[in-house]
Structures are given as C-alpha cells and as structure tokens.
Amino acid sequence: MKLRISGDKLTIASAHMLVRHDKCAKIHGHNYQVEIEIEGELDENNMVIDFSLFKPDVIRMLKQFDHKILIPSESKDLQIETKDKQVTINTCEGKLYRLPKEDVVFIPIESTTIELLSKHIHNLLKKQYPQFKITIIMSETPTSTVVYSGED
Known about the structure:
Radius of gyration: 17 Å
Distance between the termini: 23 Å
Oligomer: single chain
Largest sheet: 7 strands, mixed
Number of strands: 10
Strand content: 35-45%
CATH superfamily: 6-pyruvoyl tetrahydropterin synthase/QueD
C-alpha cells in the first residue's frame, strides 16, 4: 500500500544557480513543492507508517534547505572556499560570490537541478526508512515537476 504526504510545510524556499545555463546561471529562487510517497506493507496497526511520526521527520529534514542558498559541493564548475563566516564561490563563468556561511547549505551533488535535488532528498529519506519504497515528487514551478523513485 502507498501513502502520500504533501502540503505547505513541505515547501522549500531556496536559491540556487545552474552554472553553464543561459537563463539559470544567475542566483535565483524557487518555492519547491515536495510530495512524498511511501510504500510498504501494513503494520500491526493497519498502517503503512504512522503519519504523526513520518511527516515531522520529513519536515525536519527539509528544513535544512529552507531559506538557504543551495550550493552543489561536488560541482566541477565552482571553486568554493570557506573561511571564518564567509563562503566565496568562483564560477567557471567568472562570477564571484561572497555569501554568509549561515545562509548556505552545501549539498554533495554536481548541480542543484531539481532532478539531483529530488534524488538527494530521496537518498536522505531512504537512509532513515530503508524498509520502504520512497518516491519524491518535487516541483520548482507549477509546470515543472520531477518524480524520483530510486531507479537511476
């Protein structure tokens, strides 16, 4: 059986940039809408998982990305230096950014595309809930949605 969680508390307001992209190379933001499907067998209480336990865990996990600038720490196109309370980023396109460290979250991916963000979120949840099949449905605009279930 499958259940799905969604709603305002699963929205992430974040900024990012896609280096080497005509339109999206500049820092810009999205209000990412996240829905999560979790599939498994019914337990002794006839539930796949207790909503009151699962949803708060998901909200806490997503909170780390909310109102932050998402930086892909595995990018080959960025030179990243962290010193004291500052993060300096040089892009392959010659842009230089200096950001407060508290405003940045480093994600171990190559690029902050919605595809790789949804995969990263999936992997975080899968570590916590390995017994379930997890699907991430993530939108960066009302017309741009990615669905990721762990199959590459």
